[in-house]
Amino acid sequence: MDRDLCVRCNAADGDPFFEQTDRLYNTTQRQFQMVRCRQCGMARLSPPPPASALSAYYPDRYWFDARGDQLSRIAESYRVLVLRDHIAFIEGAYRHAKATGPVLDTGCGGGLLPGLLRKRGIPAFGLDSSLTACALAWSGNGVPAVNGDLNKAPFHPRSFALITMFHVLEHLHHPAAYLGAARDLLRDDGRIVVQVPNRASWQALLFGKNWNGFDVPRHLQNFRAEDIQALLEHSGFTIMRRKFFSLRDNPAGFATSLAPRLDPVARRVRGLPSNSLHLAAYAVLAGLGLPFALLEAAFARGSSVMLEARKR
Ligand SMILES: [Zn+2]
């Protein structure tokens, strides 16, 4: 049985926030309760779905697979383009780390990101809980990927100069334990790069419980920038940098919040056919979201937050 406690401050009491179901992938009709911690205000699903139930909420082809039709290949070119933000942030963190060594991308999916890092001369490895995703990372992107959990990963302590976690921590029952495992695997002065949705964003205010960043029931934790910073500090890291704009995530999140059924991954998962008209409509919505995403980020209220932190 997983404890139903706030992962930021360990308090048990929470005030009801809203109820929501799986609006994006429709894997269940069940309603889930979101609460806000009475002590620190961080939001979480309460009670969290047990670990044994979670796999039912993750569709088989949840991660990205580029080996498909022409639309998939267009989508991949787009994803490479919009990952430039992430790559630049990672390269900065890698330079800042006085430690040398490889990079580990946790939750690597099909390995697009670590594959791009390898092409730029950074030795990057992947880790994912999906065996199929790992196989694709090897075969599709030439990324050595390990199937498993970071807490039990087959690496020596202090192996890595940098560990990345893009949209990982919000999916976990015990993100602090995960950060602790990452810290053990980092060399002295190693860096961690974390990205999570930001519940204190203007998009979250605008869309309420229909905000894409809540992604019920897959997101068990719903951080504000201050929540993830506190968790990193408690876990033995010092915050070095924050970035509130993500070209990949924020405009697309705006579009998906407005029209989840137009989201290309959601269409594939739901078995709905996609044509260029669907893609164009989605792109128009994301285009409308772009100025909003730039504005909220300028006020440090972007719908995702990327942080670089140093191992203390
Ligand atoms: Zn709390």
Characteristic key phrases:
Rossmann fold; binds zinc ion; four-stranded antiparallel sheet; alpha/beta; 312 residues; 21% strand; globular
Gist of the model:
The protein has 312 residues and is an alpha/beta fold. The protein has helices at 51-54, 70-82, 84-96, 112-119, 131-141, 175-185, 202-207, 225-234, 250-258, 264-269, 276-298, and strands spanning 14-20, 32-37, 43-45, 103-106, 124-128, 145-147, 160-166, 186-197, 221-222, 237-243, 304-311.
Could you characterize the architecture of this molecule?
The protein has 312 residues and is α/β, with parallel strands linked by helices. It has one domain: 3-Layer(aba) Sandwich (Rossmann fold), CATH 3.40.50. 37% of the residues lie in helices and 21% in strands. It is built from eleven helices and eleven strands. The chain has helices spanning 51-54, 70-82, 84-96, 112-119, 131-141, 175-185, 202-207, 225-234, 250-258, 264-269, 276-298; strands at residues 14-20, 32-37, 43-45, 103-106, 124-128, 145-147, 160-166, 186-197, 221-222, 237-243, 304-311. The strands form two sheets. Strands 6-5-4-7-8-11-10 form a seven-stranded mixed β-sheet, with helices on both faces. Strands 1-2-3-9 form a four-stranded antiparallel β-sheet, with no helix packed on it. The longest helix is centred in the C-terminal third of the chain and has 23 residues, at 276-298. The two termini are 32 Å apart. Bound molecules: zinc ion. Zinc ion (ZN) binds next to loops.
